[in-house]
Each structure stands twice: as structure tokens, then as C-alpha cells.
Amino acid sequence: MGSFIPSGQASPGNEPDLPNIPFFPPVSPSIFRDAMDVDTTVSTERINMALQLSLMEVNNSLAVWSAAQIELGNATLAATKDTVYGEDEQAVNHQEKLYQSAVFHLAKARVVEHMRDFDSTAAGHNKADELSQPIDDFKREARRNVRAIMGQPGTVVELI
After folding, report:
1. Cys bridge to 36: 41, 76, 92, 108, which one at CB 3.0-4.6 A?
2. CB of 74 closer than 8 Å to CB of 80
3. Which residues contact 38 (CB under 8 A, 6 or more apart)?
4. 119: part of which helix (H) or strand (E)?
């Protein structure tokens, strides 16, 4: 009995960083794949598209805030809060990590949304229904990170 094992065309180690506008850091597809557990069955082109659309969406959400930061003399996102965890190459800037997380979570939601239409059988539709909640969770986490960058508290609403 034969089996089909999908193999993607992506070469995760060879994916260059995606450029960004000067205020925000570039985004790494390789780090995205590792951090968000996206394997090579998802093509480099699909990953890049999801990341580019997501960074544009996050940049748009932060447009007014970032313009105000630039007027205050902060030329980059990293300069808006100087909290750094670790040292040397391992150092991580608080704001840049929140930004990366926001972009990554939106991109993962996009990737999962597009993977839902892969199987049109009844089992595939059930699987797609199961993925709706994680997609919402990824989007919620992205919004939470954007609010944290701006120093705004998250909002918890309980329905009665």
C-alpha cells in the first residue's frame, strides 16, 4: 500500500528577512516557521504573503501611535521602550518582541485559514470547523500584543 507524504518546496534556512518601513523591524520567515510551528508543506510564497499582509495590518494599527513616537524623538520601535531581556546576541527588546508576536499570530491565522480549504470531504469540513477557534485565538493574541505595544490594557468582557 502506497502513501503520500507531502513535501514542501520551502527552504526555511534560506528565507531572507522581509523588509519593513524604517520605524518597525524586519520580519524573519525562518523565525516565524520555528516559533509558530509551520513546516515546509506551506510554501515560502504563502508564508511571505501572510507575513507581509500581517506586518502591514499591524503597522496600520500602530500608525497614529508610531507617528506620535517619531515626533517624540523615537526613531524606531525599539527606542520607545528600552526594556531588554538578556545580553549580547540573545538580547530581546520588549517592544520588538511584542511586534513580532503580533505579526506572527496574524500570519499564522492567515496560514491556517487558507489551509482549511485543502480537504473538501466531510472530515475536512469538520477539521475546518475545529480550526475556527484557534484562528480567533491567534487574532486575539495579535490584538493583545498591539495594545501592549501602545501601553494600553487589554479588555476583558464577560457576556452575561
Report:
1. 108
2. yes
3. 32, 47, 108, 111
4. none
